[in-house]
Every structure is written in C-alpha cells, then in structure tokens.
# Entry
Amino acid sequence: MSTQFKVLNPATGELVEIVNLNTEDEIKQALKNGHNAFKKWSKIDAHTRSKLLKDWSRIIQENKEDIAEVMTLENGKPLKESLGEVTYATTYIDWYAEEATRIYGRTIPASSETKRIVVSHQPIGLVAAITPWNFPAAMMTRKAAPALAAGCTFIVKPAEETPLTTMKLVELAHEVGIPHDAIQYVNGKGPDVGTLFTDSEYIRKITFTGSTPIGKLLMRNSADTVKHVTMELGGHAPLIVAEDADLDFAVTQTILSKFRNAGQTCICANRVIVHENIVDAFSERLTKAVNKLIVGNGMDKDTDIGPIINEKGYQKIFSQVNDAIEKGANVLIGNEYKANIEQGSFFVYPTVLKNVKENMTIMQEETFGPIIPIISFKKIEEAVEIANSTPFGLAAYFFTNDYRVGTYLHDHLDFGIIGWNDGAPSGAHVPFGGMKESGLGREGGSEGIEPYLETKYLSIGHFDH
Ligand code: NAP
# Structure
C-alpha cells in the first residue's frame, strides 16, 4: 500500500510535492492527543485564546505571498484569487478571535422564588474537519477559527489535491503558540480517514465541506456515536435576471459569481434564468464580456480562469455540455477544451449556452466549471419554480430594481444565501450555509460559533436569602 501521494499542478501536470500519508495508528494517536489537549485548551481563558487567534491571522498575512503561490500551484486558481483567498481566510480568524470573548450565557426567570436558573455554554470537545480542494485555506479557517475560539480542539483532513496550503496554515498556528495538539492535520484517503473520524469516540463533532453524497455518508456514519455535524455541501445556484434589471450590472455580477476559481465554487451561478424579453440582449452582452476572459496558468498575472482540478471534473463538464447540445442548446461562445490528459493538465474555456431546457443534465446537477447555461422565463413565478426545482438550496441570485419582485423572490426562493443585485455575498461576518440537500448548519457570523458549543442549563433550588 502506498504511503505517499503526489500533489500535482493541474495547469501543467508537474509534481508540486510528495506528501506522506498518515498511518491508521498515527491518526488514532492524533485523535487521542487532540482529545487530551482539549482538557487544557478549553480551560485557557477566552482573552488568551483570542490573542493567539489574532497572532495566527497576523502571521498568515505576513506569509501571504508564499501561501498564495503554493495554493495556485496545487489548486490552479489565478494567483490574484489565491491572494484574495488568503485574506478571506484570515477574516474568519479575525472575526472569531473577537467572538471568543463574547460567548455569553443568560439567566431565566424561575418559576419559584427559591430557584435560580443559569444557562451557560461550554466547548463540545475535539472537532474533526474534512475539507475540499476548491478553497484550501478558507474552508479550513472557517471551521478551525470558531472551534478554537469556542475552546474546542481541532483536527483537519484536507483534500488530497490540495493539502499543502492547509498544512502550512496549521504549522503557522503552531509557530505563534497555539498548542500542537489543539490544531492538527492528518493526510490520508477520504474514505479511510472519514471512517476513523466517524468511529472515534474522541471526536464530538464532524464538520464537513464537500459533495452532498459524501456529506450524507458522514452523517450516517456519525449516528452511532451521536456526533454533532455541520455539513456544507453541494450547490446549484440559480441566477434570475428580471425584465427590469440593469443589464450591464447583471452581466458584470454574473461574471463575478460564475468564473471565480474557474466556476469550481459551491455558490457560483450555475443556472442563469432570464426574462424572455431581455434574454437576447443579456446573452449578447454576456458573450462579449466572456470573450475578454483569459484562460491560462494561474501563475501568469493576466490569467482570469485557471485549469479544472482533475480529469474527473474535466470529463463531467464536457459531458454536461455535450448533453445540453444534443438536447438542443446553442453554443454562443466557448465549448473549447485544452487538456493533456496523460500529463494531467485540464483547461475548459468559458462557455455560454442558450436555449437551455430543464431536462438537460446541466440544469439538474452541479457543473463545477466555467459554463453558463441560459434558460428563459415568462412570469416570475416560473423563474422561482425553475430555481427551486433541484434538491439543492445553497445560494441564489437575482437582479431587479423592483422591490415587489425582489421581496417576492426573497420570500419564495428556498436557499440559505441570497444575493439581490449582489453576485458576491460571502463574508466572515455572515451566516453561510444551505437548505435542503446543500447542508446543515451555518458557518460565519455569530451563528458560526454556536455549533462548537454545548448549552448547559443549571437549576439552583432552595435558593435561600
Ligand atoms: P468531495 O469529493 O466530497 O471531497 C471533499 C473532501 O471529502 C475531501 O477531503 C475528500 O478527501 C473527502 N472524502 C472523499 N470521500 C470521503 C469519504 N468516503 N469519507 C470521508 N471523506 C471523504 O468533494 P470535492 O469534489 O472535493 O469538492 C467539491 C464539492 O464541495 C462540491 O459539491 C461543492 O459544492 C462542495 N462545496 C461546498 C461548499 C459549501 O460551503 N457548501 C464549499 C465548497 C465546496 P479526498 O481528497 O481524499 O478524496
């Protein structure tokens, strides 16, 4: 059995680094260490934990360029996006460094004058995270920062494609004095590490970001030990352009939402639903804007769209586009591919498809690529029906300046994140998460620390004055 795996650059297929896989014994020992460390870390006062988190954020910023370069090499995203992600990742640490000192309890008026009722919170214990390759820094800090702030200890298994960024961030946490066993990483195959995590009695919570099928599996496997779970799963975001929308603005925001990380984001616009009276004008302007995007190696400073992460992702995009064309979609731009499959490099050129129908796979399944399928609607109710017609409920976008249309859409779209004239709604200060099969729980904002805390209620009887 292999004890190592290769991290490859998806732009060139070149070897970036060889990483050691942890053995089963090593992972079990790490879990035990994390469990033991919890006893100490959870007792450190919140102000000290807050300061350590601030130091962690600072040292990440000091190493920003190096981290971003590693991220681009292992993930492929343009360097400017990697730099943006490093900063985005630190905003979670900054936010939860502040929240650490604001974990309040409360008192409840008792039903008898001889009683006092106090509600307090305590950290839940060792937390295990499994993270995806598409945001190797931010998906980890979004979990580690609230966990550590709450007083939990933390262990992460990064995706096999992109372990290096995560490893570097954890090492920097140790460098500023966060105890070694309070935050750890392990490397291994998803199913193997997943089973060790879900079977472990030391772990009290699993927090996962990744695909819906793996999320369901982890939930099932967490049942035997009744672990807490937070699930940030797949999306299939609709983007609705109403008849009155500012078209140029809608085009700019569609590009912003769609093409970050080559369309490999869970909240990127995946189904563009445009009023029939403006669909031609919108498509034309969108196509012109897409034509300006530069595809290439993320290390080149002009690149807007880097490679697709691996062959599986590349083939999925290819087959969704082919299916749409076979069923009658028109290609306005794109449908070009440049891959060296043997070498391991995969590029897909940004593509706009018109005359898309609901029976096409691209309208039913997440694409994870730089493809925009456009479907038209007559009435706003129809747009909502199309938008809500999948099992996913992560993010939705709409463009309108009519407050009646806007409030109707807000009220009727079953999505956890809604951007109204806003193609970039993420942030450390907001509750990010999905409805339906897109997930359970929220990350970010004041909500994001709650899943790391138990609520304990104390009833004091015979309270004598
Ligand atoms: P994935 O295949 O589910 O992998 C995600 C992580 O799960 C990786 O670390 C992977 O490890 C691990 N894994 C795989 N099989 C496992 C198993 N049987 N048990 C335990 N862990 C296992 O997803 P992905 O393709 O990397 O990521 C893309 C998906 O993530 C998309 O669906 C996207 O929408 C979703 N996502 C959601 C959010 C959100 O906030 N809702 C954010 C980002 C991404 P290996 O690398 O070893 O396989």
Summary: The two ends are 69 Å apart (CA to CA). Residues 233 and 438 are 5 Å apart (CA to CA).
